[in-house]
Write a structure and sequence with these properties.
This protein has 680 residues and is of the alpha+beta class. It contains 22 helices and 20 strands.
């Protein structure tokens, strides 16, 4: 047979198609270029689905074809403990003194005031900020803040050394913008973070008291460069959030949906004589009249778009803290070793034999480690007492044990963006608006708002989980997986349920609900999700294991200042508990959680150290929906090369990462079809 000649232009592979830019995808969908760029800029270049939804929502926006660019701002924003203190101050000052000028924005230091950027140039300025952050070789001195209080202004000023370096970064950003024909000026005055201004003199004493209760120079705080943008129509207007839905009765009225914001002229609002005001919808871009009592004032920055957030490289030692005690990596490793059930005994290996067998010692939580480092090794950790496991045939103990860790399937909010206002009517009834949306959602307290941070899976997400379960069943997983632990998030529970259905063991293996498997708390700075109660989970059809005692209770998921190291320790603790509780029975263990769970629950188990916050943030983007990690217990001959006893005199059980027994799952993005494109 003759050989085929090489093709000059090879057909693009499926992988190549997946790498097409969001703009090209929108153009292929038939959207005009200027509209596609406007949608991507307005949604922060999150994804194609969100941009296309924005275009559909703004189909009646009179400014959709205007070439007026958005305004951009570069802020320096605190995170960590200082951010938590400032959020509490914002809430208390508004409650006790009413709103003042500072409540219009999030806590920040202005580095580059508003500047206009054409929609087509947005990717360039985001890349520019990333490049400046990556090539900033000079570490920034530790940021120190000085409190300033006067009769008309209260806030913090940056100390001179760190302020000068920050100004250099801002000036460089402005100069780089000028090279791509974007006019911007770096803030050259004293850098400050405003806490209160434009407040009545009678509020001075209360505000002063609240300000002086803030510790601005806590070691557990970090700083980020953040690039925001806002609609040009916000200029001169105030932002109100919708608190009641409204269906227009006249053609000049504006439809109001929960979750939407409205831009309102403050003068027109104050001068309204009939309770009706004119506003512009953030969600649709349309304008019209609305009842004034259906909206309430909120921060202008609530209606902004975040394009990029970059962690600053501070020169001060940024050691993560455990209950206020700084811990280096070596210290953390020692604490983790002490936390391990295999090491949780007295240095005298025979001392525990003299203790009565009925004595039960409470397991030490990760948040308590720094308080009992010296004493923890003196306790014998009774894992079976934590969570009793029903005995099964010992045949399951044959062969090396495996630990499977799975990320949840496709979630509805990341697929459809702001879905709640579209899918719930005025009475709170769920209405399915897309075939990839779930057929129904479970009943729960606080619905539909409680779905905001605890959303369900899409139909595709349920299918992904079912396919993974079927694949595991095909390689014998139905007989080996005997213990299942799941994060309390709804998306994780639905993933777990569908995996068990695919394995055909949903009626024989119950789900152990485990709060400690929830993802990193630092991603929930404003508030934690309102999880479904166990009774609501049972009513929704989830088969939970009765009398399971949580390794980490819900009440312990309250410190949203949790460092990356603390998160790894929490996850490792849960993993060790799950393995130890089921060791006497055998069988494989299945953990269902989040993208970060795959690394956090396996890394220390196989001998690694906790990753930094930056490393963790990078790795989660490489773990797609329903990814599967597999860890296997080493055989005795595999452990013989490194079987030196630990400080307690016993040998640790060793584990290793292995190739998962089933292949990964790849799928392409399916674009949303608009039937109106077929109209003549």
């Amino acid at each position: 047979m003759a050989e085929l000649p090489p093709r000059k232009n090879a057909t693009p592979t499926k992988l190549t198609k997946l790498l097409i830019s969001p703009l090209k995808v929108l153009l292929q969908m038939g959207f005009p270029k200027h509209r596609a760029e406007k949608a991507l800029a307005a949604t922060g270049y999150r994804n194609v689905q969100l941009a296309s939804d924005w275009l559909l929502a703004h189909v009646n926006d009179p400014t959709l074809d205007d070439l007026q660019p958005r305004e951009y701002l570069l802020y320096l924003c605190p995170s960590g403990l200082l951010q938590s203190q400032l959020q509490e101050f914002w809430a208390r000052s508004a409650e006790e003194c009413g709103r003042n000028g500072a409540h219009e924005f999030l806590p920040h230091v202005t580095l580059v005031p508003p500047f206009k950027v054409p929609d087509s140039a947005v990717p360039s300025i985001v890349s520019l900020l990333e490049r400046i952050a990556e090539h900033e070789n000079q570490p920034i001195p530790e940021l120190r803040l000085e409190t300033y209080i006067s009769q008309n202004f209260m806030g913090f000023f940056l100390n001179q050394d760190s302020a000068e370096v920050i100004k250099v970064v801002a000036s460089r950003f402005a100069r780089e913008l000028a090279q791509i024909n974007i006019a911007a000026e770096a803030h050259t005055q004293a850098l400050h973070l405003t806490l209160a201004y434009n407040f009545p003199s009678g509020q001075y004493s209360t505000l002063e008291y609240l300000v002086r209760n803030i510790n601005p120079n806590t070691d557990a705080s970090h700083w980020q460069l953040r690039l925001y943008s806002r609609d040009i129509r916000l200029s001169g207007k105030k932002v109100y959030k919708v608190i009641f839905p409204h269906v227009p009765r006249e053609t000049d009225e504006l439809e109001l949906l929960l979750g939407d914001f409205v831009y309102v002229d403050p003068e027109a609002c104050n001068n309204s004589i009939d309770g009706w005001i004119e506003g512009i919808s953030w969600l649709t871009g349309c304008s019209g009249f609305l009842p004034k009592n259906y909206v309430e004032k909120t921060a202008e920055s609530d209606a902004w778009t975040l394009h990029k957030s970059v962690e600053l490289n501070l020169s001060a030692d940024e050691l993560d803290e455990i209950d206020g005690v700084s811990a280096s990596s070596d210290q953390a490793l020692r604490l983790l070793n002490q936390m391990s059930p295999e090491l949780g005994c007295n240095n005298d290996t025979n001392s525990h034999r003299d203790q009565p067998t009925s004595t039960r010692v409470v397991a030490v939580r990760p948040t308590e480690l720094s308080k009992c480092t010296e004493n923890y090794a003196n306790f014998n950790l009774d894992m079976a007492g934590l969570s009793p496991v029903v005995e099964r045939p010992l045949a399951f103990k044959q062969g090396p044990r495996r630990l499977f860790i799975v990320r949840h399937g496709e979630r509805i909010d990341f697929t459809f963006g702001t879905w709640i206002p579209y899918c719930f009517d005025e009475t709170g009834k769920y209405v399915r608006k897309d075939l990839n949306m779930p057929l129904s959602v479970p009943k729960r307290q606080g619905s539909p708002e409680s779905f905001y941070k605890d959303c369900p899976l899409t139909i595709l997400g349920e299918t992904q989980a079912g396919l993974l379960g079927q694949a595991l069943r095909a390689v014998g997983g139905s007989n080996r997986i005997q213990h299942v632990y799941c994060s309390p998030s709804l998306r994780s529970l639905q993933t777990c349920q569908n995996i068990l259905k695919g394995l055909e063991i949903e009626h024989s293996v119950p789900i152990c609900l485990e709060p400690g498997l929830f993802e990193w708390l630092v991603w929930y700075q404003d508030s934690m999700p309102q999880f479904m109660t166990p009774s609501e989970m049972l009513d929704a059809g989830f088969r939970l294991r009765e009398n399971h005692q949580y390794f980490i209770d819900f009440s312990e998921l309250s410190d949203r200042r949790e460092s990356a190291e603390q998160y790894y320790m929490r996850s490792h603790y849960v993993t060790q508990c799950a393995l130890r509780c089921t060791e006497h029975i055998g069988g494989d263990v299945l953990l269902i959680g989040h993208a970060s769970t795959l690394d956090a629950c396996s890394r220390q188990l196989v001998g690694g150290l906790p990753r930094s916050a930056q490393e963790l943030s990078r790795i989660v983007h490489r773990i797609p929906y329903c990814s599967l990690a597999a860890v296997q217990q080493c055989l005795p001959e595999e452990s013989s090369l490194d079987d030196s006893p630990d400080e307690t005199g016993s040998n640790k059980i060793k584990w290793k990462l292995i190739e998962p027994p089933v292949p990964p799952m790849t799928y392409s993005a399916n674009l949303r079809f608009d039937w109106q494109t077929l109209l003549p």
